[in-house]
Design brief:
transport, Sec-independent protein translocase protein TatC, protein transport, TatC
């Protein structure tokens, strides 16, 4: 019986071809949104810088310490916003690539988790902008020495804001992470509940490291992290008992 070695590579090559197609779709989507936003890049930068400008003394302002900064910083922001807007499309492409390999019951679990992760990420970013950003900026402006006029570089401020938004967006995924760890049997609900005090201490430690060096920002991240962990435990208690223990061979979807 003859054997064609090229047939062994066909499924693998088809997966690579599909992955390339989905990656190209993601690039095109990000590029289209970026091109739509780039004409409003200055307005976008004004939007995220208004909380700081409102706190600065009348004679102070944002500055550009590099010749190209005043042009590149708003463009970079437009790119970050384009990524932010296309997160659902990016995850949908990843899901479309991964889902054929999942069982039906895994899909029924994964789809709500995927949607929840999107909502929680956007909620974390919104929380950072509307609740955390102004108190954090007030801390820095208030503690500036009397003979120092705060005039922040626009690149530094953009990096600060993007990091803050990303940290809160990722940390708000704690319920999803907690639920996934329980569903895949890496930990149990009882084990997590028994280690609650250590997890709370870890939340405050992480918040102290990743947030600006003021107590208000740390508390505004640590307290929601603790509450989100408790939410993850509640969801795990409700859902883990319905998780199948074995994977039947005939449960694959077409």
């Amino acid at each position: 019986m003859s054997h064609d070695p090229n047939t062994d590579d066909t499924p693998l090559m088809s997966h690579f071809a599909e992955l390339r197609t989905r990656f190209i779709r993601i690039l095109i989507a990000v590029l289209v949104v970026f091109l739509a936003l780039v004409g409003f890049s200055r307005q976008l930068y004004d939007f995220i810088s208004n909380p700081l400008v409102a706190l600065l003394p009348n004679e102070a302002s944002l500055i550009a310490t590099d010749v190209a900064s005043s042009f590149l910083a708003p463009i970079r922001l437009s790119f970050f916003v384009a990524l932010f807007i296309t997160v659902p499309f990016i995850l949908a492409q990843i899901w479309g690539f991964v889902s054929p390999a999942l069982y039906r019951h895994e899909k029924r679990t994964a789809i709500p988790l995927l949607l929840s992760s999107i909502v929680l990420f956007y909620t974390g970013v919104a929380f950072a902008y509307f609740v955390v950003l102004v108190p954090a900026l007030k801390f820095f402006v208030m503690f500036a020495p009397d003979n120092v006029l705060p005039m922040t570089d626009i690149d530094s401020y953009l990096n600060f804001v993007v990091k803050l938004f990303l940290v809160f967006g990722v940390m708000f995924e704690i319920p999803v992470l907690t639920l996934v760890l329980v569903l895949v049997r890496l930990v149990s609900v009882q084990s997590l509940a028994s280690k609650r005090r250590y997890i709370i201490v870890a939340c405050f430690g992480i918040a102290a490291i990743v947030t600006p060096p003021d107590g208000a920002s740390m508390l505004m991240l640590a307290i929601p992290m603790c509450l989100l962990f408790e939410l993850g435990l509640v969801l795990a208690r409700l859902l883990v008992k319905d998780t199948p223990q074995q994977l039947p061979d005939n449960d694959k979807s077409a």
